[in-house]
What does this fold into?
Amino acid sequence: MKVIDHLKGAKGTLFSVEILPPLKGKSIQSIWEVLDPIMEFKPSFIDVTYHREEYVYKKRENGLLEKFSIRKRPGTVGICAAIINKYKVDTVPHIICGGFSKEETENALIDLHFLGIDNVLAIRGDAIKSEPGFSPDPDGHHYAIDLVKQIVCMNKGQYLDEELAEVAPSHFCIGVAGYPEKHFEAPNMKSDFKYLKAKIDAGADYIVTQMFFDNKKYFDFVKQCKEAGINVPIIPGLKPITTKKQASVLPKVFHIDIPDALLDEIEKCGTDKEVRQVGIDWCINQSKELKKNGAPCLHYYTMGTAATTIAIAKGVF
Ligand SMILES: Cc1cc2nc3c(=O)[nH]c(=O)nc-3n(C[C@H](O)[C@H](O)[C@H](O)COP(=O)(O)OP(=O)(O)OC[C@H]3O[C@@H](n4cnc5c(N)ncnc54)[C@H](O)[C@@H]3O)c2cc1C
It folds into this structure.
């Protein structure tokens, strides 16, 4: 079932999670360890992130460094199919521009279509870790909107090879990313809204937000989206802070602010166990307020562990 149909048919705020594939070489058991206990809360859908290649340098016997390209967390599509098979729950594989030519994207979409996966989150992806900025594959997409357009074309039965006869259209529901605190590359919020609206106008069905810790940012974002003519569901993405270190790491990595009141509470903590409880309580309060104000779904970034998401879900649903 499509995410958009889950949202349309919902009687209240839905619950969903995002998981990430295990590190290469680890078994799928680590996914079941996260999802088995989460299933009690009946997630409407499960997102699985996509991780592009990184470059690592290995020292050779002659002392020289050799550059390797590796993907540390492969398996997005396989995990989605395995989840559907095991739990009969809808999955949303993330599909990115980076590292894909248009044809490779088309082939990846065909795999998803054949597997009966009707949902994708279409995103650009970040730069390769060792590179200063995002650069697309020579025959790939620069921006998420280009990916959205390709998927919309496939939904209409238009493949890259226009001469294909008797083609079967795909029927993907398309999610895109939105940033209540602005995408870090956007010169200002107005510009970011312009391109977000373009993704919706191109055919995206809903938005999932970057994490935020101040609900006012989400409410303002939703209001400004409406004013800009963006009328699709906007799903808030939530992550609890669980260690003191995250208070400085998350703003750096995700370009988000930690509110004073939360930072004060974290600074009072002597141990990470205490920080975790502060983070869970904060996220429960955020979730309750979002739910009360009609958020269509609460989407939790599990970051590979179930316990905190479960503690929050118990307090909210
Ligand atoms: C919910 C969510 C899930 C994510 N999952 C993953 C994942 O699984 N794997 C992963 O690698 N990354 C993931 N990311 C991170 C994401 O890839 C990065 O934030 C990336 O930097 C931007 O992706 P985007 O799809 O928002 O890009 P875009 O929508 O392409 O926007 C990127 C920037 O370009 C600007 N822009 C857009 N279109 C144009 C245009 N035509 N001309 C000029 N400027 C333009 C935008 O304002 C923005 O500043 C996720 C992010 C979110 C919020």
About this structure: The two ends are 22 Å apart (CA to CA).
